[in-house]
What does this fold into?
Amino acid sequence: MSRSDLKPPGTAPGTLVHIGDRRTDFGIDIVEFEEDRIEKFKTTKPSDCQRFHATKAVTWIHVTGLHKTERIGELAEILGIDSLVAEDILNTNQRTKLEEHPDYLFIIADLPTEEDSTESEDPELQHQAVDHFALLLTEYGVITFCEDRTTAFDRVRERLNRPDGRLRRRGADYLAWALLDSMVDHFLEAVEHLEQGLDRLEEELDGGNRTIDGGEIYRARQNASHLYRVVRPLREVTGGLLRSESDLLAATTQNYLRDLYDHALHALESSENLREHASALRDFYMTLSDKRLNEVMKVLTCISTIFLPLSFLAGVYGMNFEFMPELAQKSGYPILWVLFLTVAGGLLMFFRKKRWL
It folds into this structure.
């Protein structure tokens, strides 16, 4: 974490400071719905959200572009959001957590985003990018905040468009569950994609593929560890929702919250298994690399051992002494070659017998 990612020391609690990068323009998407009607509109004015306090319909207010601190502050004042909560919303480094307040439930989590195609040539091994995401469940609806525009909730929007859908007949707590469930499902998809990539690498290694880049395996292990760190806090958040006694959560929603907790637990266990799988794959790759290196060193050592006596013989008869009986024989040169071949062949047979080659 760099110094630019931190608030100035001594800043008063509740001071609204955006910590993070500007991802998109500020905007507010509002969906107000009942069983027999739905109304949608977009705005950039927080004051347009004022009227949703008194309405009986369920309202979903989705805010993007957290860099506009003055508008976030105005929206928080209109919707009755505590300044400390608004401060956490603007802090993109804030940890995943669940807080229960008298008038609302507050959740911060990481939201899966579209994968960066430049991270890896294999889409299954790409780094899973995340955005800062905040959700408030109130009596009149759900308020969500996101760094950037996302497609993670497109399926929820499609379900809201169906008049006969369950979302249109339920309250704000069911909408909050649907949004969180969609988020967890995206993490499960990311786990599945990474698992497929690791399985492919393992098959190639088992098949003796020598062209696999060790950096690819290292990145896969990094991505698995990153995914595990992001998914792990979801168990605490979903478990807290399941145990919550807040009046904002209807008894009819408990079964869905239990299902959400099961999905989060499944994502956590799967990501943990992925991390162990990636570590085992890295160890397997290192073992294969060491084995290949040992094979090369063994062959080079055997070649050096074979040439050692030949170099000795060539050195002896390459000396410039005048009285060497073998040098005067006409058959001395071919005899030396026969001796060379005999020694080399004998050593090769010896190495094969010992299974060194």
In short: The chain has eight helices and seven strands. The radius of gyration is 34 Å. Confidence is low (pLDDT under 50) at residues 116-120. The longest helix spans residues 254-316.
